[in-house]
Amino acid sequence: QIQFADDMQEFTKFPTKTGRRSLSRSISQSSTDSYSSAASYTDSSDDEVSPREKQQTNSKGSSNFCVKNIKQAEFGRREIEIAEQDMSALISLRKRAQGEKPLAGAKIVGCTHITAQTAVLIETLCALGAQCRWSACNIYSTQNEVAAALAEAGVAVFAWKGESEDDFWWCIDRCVNMDGWQANMILDDGGDLTHWVYKKYPNVFKKIRGIVEESVTGVHRLYQLSKAGKLCVPAMNVNDSVTKQKFDNLYCCRESILDGLKRTTDVMFGGKQVVVCGYGEVGKGCCAALKALGAIVYITEIDPICALQACMDGFRVVKLNEVIRQVDVVITCTGNKNVVTREHLDRMKNSCIVCNMGHSNTEIDVTSLRTPELTWERVRSQVDHVIWPDGKRVVLLAEGRLLNLSCSTVPTFVLSITATTQALALIELYNAPEGRYKQDVYLLPKKMDEYVASLHLPSFDAHLTELTDDQAKYLGLNKNGPFKPNYY
After folding, report:
1. Between the CA of residue 351 and those of 202, 232, 274, 375, 392, what are the distances in Å?
2. How many other CB atoms are found less than 10 A from the CB of residue 378?
3. Are 192 and 137 in contact (CB under 8 A)?
4. What is the CATH topology of the domain spanning 249-407?
């Protein structure tokens, strides 16, 4: 007969309250907690000195940057070199165009995730003649060693993992407000940089030739400005280009959603009930991955077309209130705000995992959880247990910020597609003759979308079929493209 432990209490003990932190801490304080991430191997979590208080110089004596630790540059250079191996199209563009320097004279101020993949983009822009100043669009997504490598290479980068809200805006301000340096191009991800320039330095727009924006949130802001007649420069909507929507939003999220959840929670997906809020391209990618591993997936949608797609793909479309008590995981990817409210959080089951795959941290009402009756317990990097008075706990990831780039990494190859699209959009806006683009929001020309795709086909040894003259005439197409209308 199998012998069990005499003291059965060993199996029924509740966790002690040791180590729990009071929720009276402010949002900015909680944002400054410095934890290492699997995506940032050289991060030092025991260094509590703010990078803003450090005096650092690179090997050339320049101090025109602010990063966690410039000594990590060698590690970051290796990360960038590894990323280059899977970003052959961007490297190809760099080699093809660096002779003619299409961005000579361009002064680009950027606000994106600062990862090894973004570094390849930044260094490509520099190789094409641009000067760059860069900050992070997310307080958790910066890879510190990569930021150090960029600073060592001479890029004015202001970013580190675990910035406070104040640090975040300070870094953006340092990029824009530089004596003797005036930006003439903006590359934004989320619209925060554009917002800051409008708010603090509107005169900068007198020299700006264009804005390139790659997120749903940022594009929404640009259309709002345009509708109000306040957009004073041309803007390129990269987010709605085919090469961003159909690849980055779909395939990137299909792979990285599982990575982010596994690294933070070790959750097993088979049989779990998951609700995904939003069935756009990001939602489609997340659902495909979860379904493949045996999860039971529900969808919430406001759009009848997306809802019908979800139904045809075999998912049940519900209202969040209908399933909130039974689901094990809640994932938001709508680009909206207050999708998951305090009422929803109060009704969740014990140990429900809550996370966001949209760009902005507005989808989950995290602010409503910062009340005295709730206790927050940091259990891992970017993992908090929010504990109710009755002992129920909700597992909140990255404090409601973007899960994949905050808690894991994203596939390099897919980011090559988006980065190449961004580079071409910058080249197009910077070199466009005066009058081609008005003060409005534009989609990337379809021919450019197809060029980006063609640059990536050699990686798969893919061979395109060419139309005959007769076939091209029959379809009413140029045999060299574009093959799809601009509205596609």
Report:
1. 47, 48, 13, 14, 7
2. 15
3. yes
4. Rossmann fold (3.40.50)
Q: How many CB atoms lie within 10 A of CB 391?
A: 9
Is 479 assigned to a binding site? no
Please check if 144 is assigned to a binding site. no
244 annotated binding-site participant:
yes
Q: What is the pTM of this model?
A: 0.81
Supply φ then ψ for residue 477, to 5 degrees: -120, 155
48 is in an annotated binding site: no
- Residue 285 annotated in ligand binding: yes
Helix and strand element counts for the chain (H, E)? 18, 16
| Residue 217 Cα distances to 25, 109, 331, 336, 360, angstroms | 28, 19, 17, 8, 7
Q: Show Cβ contacts of residue 171 under 8 Å, excluding neighbours closer than 6 positions.
A: 66, 135, 136, 158, 159, 163
**What does the domain layout of the chain look like in residue ranges?**
55-244+410-460, 249-407
Residue 214 annotated as binding site: yes
What CATH number has the domain spanning 55-244+410-460?
3.40.50.1480
Residue 179, marked binder: no
Query: 181: helix, coil or strand?
Result: strand
pLDDT in 10s for each residue of the chain, 488 residues: 555 444 444 444 444 444 443 333 333 333 333 333 333 333 444 457 899 999 999 999 999 999 999 999 999 999 999 999 999 889 999 998 888 999 999 999 999 999 999 999 999 999 999 999 999 999 989 999 999 999 999 999 999 999 999 999 999 999 999 989 999 999 999 999 999 999 999 999 999 999 999 888 899 999 999 999 999 999 999 988 888 878 888 898 999 999 999 999 999 999 999 999 999 999 999 999 999 999 999 999 999 999 999 999 999 999 999 999 999 999 999 989 999 999 999 999 999 999 999 888 899 999 999 999 999 999 998 999 999 999 999 999 999 999 988 888 888 998 899 999 999 999 999 999 988 999 999 988 888 889 999 999 999 999 999 999 999 999 999 999 899 887 77
Query: Residue 99 contacts by C-beta under 8 Å, 6 or more apart in sequence?
Result: none
Distance, C-alpha 279 to centroid of its chain: 18
